[in-house]
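INFO  loader      accepted 1 record
INFO  loader      residues=65
INFO  predictor   begin
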Amino acid sequence: MLGGALEQGGTDPLTGFYRDGCCATGPEDLGWHTICAVMTTEFLAHQRSVGNDLSIARPPRWLRP
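INFO  predictor   done
INFO  writer      dumping tokens
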């Protein structure tokens, strides 16, 4: 974004809570599916190095023991 216009997110497959490719949500979205981002491999490597591995799918925190 960085001051620019928002762009449509994933379309193949369709992403987002409503599976419309957009970062939209509503009251029925109990998992807060509101993040859409393009990240560099450098950013992902840094996050992994500080214990925040964003490249691994995990269940929501409220479902973890």
